[in-house]
Each structure stands twice: as structure tokens, then as C-alpha cells.
Amino acid sequence: MNEDYDVIVLGTGLTECILSGIMSVKGKKVLHMDRNSYYGADSASLTPLEDVYKRFSLPGKPPESMGKGRDWNVDLVPKFLMANGQLVSMLLITQVTRYLDFKVVEGSFVYKGGKIHKVPSSETEALSSSLMGIFEKRRFRGLLVWAANYDVNNPKTWEGLDPNKSTMADVYKKFGVNQDTTDFTGHSLALYRTDEYLNKPCIETINRIKLYSESLARYGKSPYLYPLYGLGELPQGFARLSAIYGGTYMLNKPIEEIVIEDGKVVGVKSEGEIARCKQLICDPSYIQDRTTKVGQVIRAICILSHPVGQTNNVNSCQIIFPQNQVNRKHDIYVCMISFAHNVAAQGKYIAIASTTVETNDPEKELKPALDILEPIDQKFISISDLYAPTDMGTDSQIFISRSYDATTHFETTCDDIKDIYKRMTGSDFDFSEIERTKNDIFGDCPE
Q: Which of 65, 193, 375, 414 lies 20 to 30 angstroms, CA to CA, from 88?
């Protein structure tokens, strides 16, 4: 291990594995270490089910009714991929898709007035949806058509709503939509966690609505994808990519010290040896004195013997509980997957409810979601601190990722990856540049 590297990466969470893969493709000499014996860190999928019981300190073994322990792959952090989103672009451009198989998530739902409603996936569904009355549907359709045609470079498409000056509150006012439609649009389509977006320039929300619509258009049922065998497959896919391009991986490797000289990282000490490096990427757990706590997330992993009620018995779905519908400051999310994705025993379902903690009784905050999921065979509760870096790496060359938030998609994670990439290289993440580099240096990626 006593070698010199361009980049050392600590932790095998998805953020770290993607950056490791990208840096390897760019021709950097990369060493990747993790104190754990498995890939994924906080974004791992645990198998067998016995390991989930151990992780959450539950006494005894899973009952026989749960089936074989090896049939289970339980995500610690529930997230879906937007079909037209940034992570899918990263998977395609790096060809990591060759290691993965995906299924389309069967439905997207929203909670309103104590009931679950399907988020319309077509104009026909919108017209028959119980979410809105007939006149409200017309107003909502007008908003969607306007957003779809909006071109930031063509003021004729703005209809008086400047992309950088008009707020999203101005947009809703112009189209005359009511509060329920505002909740539904902002939280189920634009996927905001809070209502802070209302008073910000409308262009970001327009782009988010377009992303949802474009993702939905790819497969029809919902805008979301999910990998067979669980999310733990994603970091492993990028780890393989890094290895193909010369990256070195070491699991079960205790990290004794991050070596810093004159304020700049120079290496990592493990088991008495020092590997030297020019740059370091790590998750917050490896260097907490350069991070700050920015909140907490509660997650409840629920094993069910039935599909979620009011969802037409789908095998997978997302349900969003907009903050105003549950008298909160943050949305509640539910991701539901099942035996159809090779993550549970036959006939079993995994529903994971999550939200940003607001009170001293976090589990009670999930009550609206947990009530919808009843009866629950087994429940695993975790409360995770969220960290953000205080050291941006400009001088130290230490680049720390952000903790995984409560959202049920990877867009915020990809924003973090692009931010770290820019701070490391001084240039914006450019998918075409990564593609060129890969082909120029190595030709087609070997099988």
C-alpha cells in the first residue's frame, strides 16, 4: 500500500463510487478503501435478512414466514432513479448499465385529504383523476402545456413570466390553480421537499417539471426506475468501472489517520502503512471535524405481506405526502418495492417511509405514512444525522460528500457529485467530455 496515488477515496457509498469511477476513467491513479466489509456504506443493500435484524439490534431470528434470508436485499437508504435524470445519464455514459438490470416503478402517488391518489401519467388519466375538479383540470393542463413549451431563449414562450424574475408563486397565480394543485405540482412533479421554492425564480421549477414529464414519457407507468437486487448494485457497478480502468479497491480496511501537512492532505494511514495522494474524497464519517450537522432523517423500513392499499395492488410505487397535507414543514416519502425486484421473499413487500426530523418524537412524524402501510409484519427504525462539509477542499484538497437526504430520488446526490467534481478539477462535469476521455484513452470499455 506504500504507493503514491492521484486520488484516494474513503467509503463506498454511491457518491464516492461514482467519483472513483469517473476519476479512473479520466486516467487518474485511484485507491479506494472502506472500513466496512461490504460495498455501499450508508447506501448499501443488506443481505441476508438476518443481517438486517443484527443491524437494527432486533433479538432473535426472522420468523419462517419471512422465507429464506438470502431472498432479501434491504436498502438502508430508499431512492429511485429518474428515467431521464442525471444518474441514468452517468450510468449510460460510463456504460455501467452493462452490470445492472432495471425495472420501471409501477406507479407514483400523492396523499391528499386522507387518501392516496395516482399522479396522472397521461392526459387521459388527468381528465379522470380524482385529484382535481373539471375546471381545475383545465387550469392545471394550461400550466403543464406552458411549462412544456417554455424556452428560456424565446421570450414569446414566457407569457410575461420572466425565468429569473418571476417566482413560482407568480406562475400559480397566473394560471389560477388552487392550493391542492400547487401542493401536487410542487411536491409530486417538481419534487421539492418544502415550499421554499415558491418565492424563488420559476426557471428551476419549470426544469424540474420538464424532467418529470420527460422521464415519464420514456416508459409510461412512472418516471422512476429501480435496479434488480437493490440499490447496493449501483456502487458495485461503479466500483467495477474503476477497477477496469486500474482503480485499486480494499474493503475491510481500518482508517487510522488522514495525514495532513501544511494544511493539505498528503496521504492516508491504514494498518501502519501510509498511501500518499494529491486529493482525497470521503464521506462525512471519515473526517467529522470538517463537517457540520444540518439536520436528521428518520427512516422506517417496513416488511409487508401485501401491496400498499389504494394503489391498485402495484408491486412498486412512490407515495409523496406533501407537507401541507400532513401539517408539517417537510414532505413524507414512501418507496415501495417487492419480490418482483429480487429484494424480498415471494409475496413480500418492502416499504420505506422517510422524512426530515422536525420534533423530539421522530417516529410519530411518520404516522400518516405508517397508517397507510398497516398491517406491518416487521419494522426497522433508523434516525440518521445529516452532515455537510465545512471544508470545501480548496486548500486542503479534501472533498467531503453530503449525507443522503430524505428525498426518494438521486437528483440531489448527483448535484453533490457534480459540485465535488467541479471543486476537484476546476471545470464543470461534462458528460460528453467523460465519454471522449474514455474512448480516447482506452477505446471501447472492455467486456
A: 193
pLDDT of residue 446: 32
Other beta carbons within 10 Å of 156: 7
Residues 6+ apart with CB under 8 A from 32: 8, 9, 12, 16, 17, 20, 239, 242, 247, 248, 249, 250
Q: How many CB atoms lie within 10 A of CB 94?
A: 24
- What is the tens place of the pLDDT at every residue in 101-153? 999 999 999 999 999 999 876 667 777 788 888 899 889 989 989 999 999 99
Q: How far apart are the first and last CA of the chain?
A: 28
Give CA–CA dist 224/238, Å, rounded: 20
> How far is residue 287's CA from residue 387's CA, in Å, rounded to a whole number?
11
How many other β-carbons are positioned within 10 Å of the β-carbon of residue 43? 27
Instruction: Specify the CATH class of 120-219 in words.
Output: mainly alpha
For residue 141, the one-letter residue type is R
Query: What are the counts of helices (DSSP H) followed by strands (DSSP E) for the chain?
Result: 13, 19
Query: pTM (2 decimals)?
Result: 0.91
The SS3 of residue 319 is strand
pLDDT of residue 433: 63
Using pLDDT thresholds of 50, 70 and 90, give the confidence band for residue 54. Answer: very high
Residues with Cβ within 8 Å of residue 404, at least 6 apart in sequence: 13, 42, 43, 77, 79, 297, 384, 413
Please tell me the predicted confidence (pLDDT) of residue 441: 36
Q: 4-42+232-292+388-442, which class in CATH?
A: alpha beta
Point out which residues pair with 167 in neighbouring strands: 201
CB 237 within 8 A of CB 350: no
Which fold is adopted by the domain 52-106+293-386? Guanine Nucleotide Dissociation Inhibitor; domain 2 (3.30.519)
- Are 300 and 363 within 8 A, CB to CB? yes
Written as nine digits, the cell of 395 is: 486548500
Crossing angle, helix 86-93 and helix 431-442, to 10 degrees? Answer: 10
Residue 122 CB neighbours (<10 A):
11
| Residue from 415, 381, 390 nearest 297 by CA | 381
Domain ranges of the chain: 4-42+232-292+388-442, 52-106+293-386, 120-219
pLDDT at 129: 81
Dig out the grid coordinates for 156 from the structure.
Answer: 414569446
